[in-house]
Amino acid sequence: MELVNNHYQLTGGIDPLALCKEYGTPLYVYDASVMERQYQRITGAFSYPNVRIHYACKALTNLAVMRLFRRWGAGLDCVSIQEVQLGLMAGFKPEDILYTPNFAGMDEYDEAVRLGVKINIDSIPMLENWGLHHKHVPIGIRINPHLMAGGNEKISVGHIDSKFGISIHQLPHVLRVVESQGLVIEGLHMHTGSDILDVDVFLRGADILFEAARKFPFLKYIDLGSGFKVPYKADDIETDVEELGEKLSEKFAEFCREIGHELTLMFEPGKFLVSEAGYLFAKCTQVKQTTSTVFVGLDTGLNHLIRPMFYGSYHKIVNVTEPTFKPRIYTVVGNICETDTFAVDRRIAEVVEGDIIGFYNAGAYGWMMASNYNSRPRPAEVLLYQGEAYLIRKRETLEDMVRNQVQLQLEEIS
Q1: Residues 6 or more apart from 107 whose CB is under 8 A from it?
Q2: Are residues 333 and 258 both part of a single domain?
Q3: The overall pTM is greater than 0.90
Q4: What is the distance between the alpha carbons of residues 211 and 253, in angstroms, rounded to a whole number?
Q5: Spatial separation of the C-alpha atoms in residues 41 and 57, rounded to whole Å
Q6: Is the domain of 369 the same as that of 264?
Q7: For residues 159 and 164, what is the distance between their CA atoms, to the nearest angstrom?
Q8: 199 with 244: CB under 8 angstroms?
Q9: Which entry of 20, 78, 256, 337 is annotated as an active-site residue?
Q10: How many independent structural domains does the chain possess?
């Protein structure tokens, strides 16, 4: 979204105020051209010929978005059997879906086997169970490389105390289980966190997996996860995927020459592909002055965008209705009966009741982490594609929220 002639415009000259008028607020809007740009950027960064990008759909599982990535050539990274099922609904072939759950039950794994998708195992107990249930089904192993990486501790998942993956120091145990059970290991996987700036983190992780990979002669892929940082504000730093592609392509090709056969190099970006493509638009319901603070209150809250409260994440916030008014200092809050503060002491063009406020970087983990807290419905979603706006999810209604409740007639119970 850019300021053009003192008015905000979305891709193709689409007016965000018109979208809010047509579909109401709060409203999520996604720009397909930004998603495609990000996908082409990462696929174009590698000279190594056998690179496979799996979209980490937990960032945004709307079927319309998933179908776009399938059309562009991506595979799918799933962390639940429901995401696998959505991926199949979106048209992905089973062999293009990678299922890497955490603490899933055997029933989920059984269903993944039935559906024919690729599977990663991330614990020794499940690895031991595999020989009892699906001995001949090839699997990948998720390794915890013990690399502390990521924007903060809540999004760092490869450290020594992480619940994710099998510790690299437990590799001898893994090898004993694999040998005793006769398991077929086709891949090694890791994921160290989110918002990783340092390209060397991925290179160190690659070295760790390379060393482990020498123990498994029949590998087909090595998956380095993701965690690429995107910019959240002007002049913000981001992961240099071009540098990563250049350095890792050379390193990976050299490793494949050493072991005598070519492997697939895989990544699983989610936020990198959809974060910058998304916006959340909300309406100012009140401007409230206290003794020391001016609050801008909105018709949304942590029930629709919890990342600032949960992760302390930064989102650029603008007054879409009156972008040229003199800036004032505001604390931007939601309408939920909790402390749902989006931003403190933020300079925003003067806001009055009824103005539309826009949040940037709302494409990843925005709608997906939304809830019905305070019994408020979740927003509609709109996709901008080839110059047109398409409604891809209707706004929830009260009827939607009570549809699965069973009405118990208490007066009939003696």
Answers
A1: none
A2: no
A3: yes
A4: 15
A5: 18
A6: no
A7: 9
A8: yes
A9: 337
A10: 2
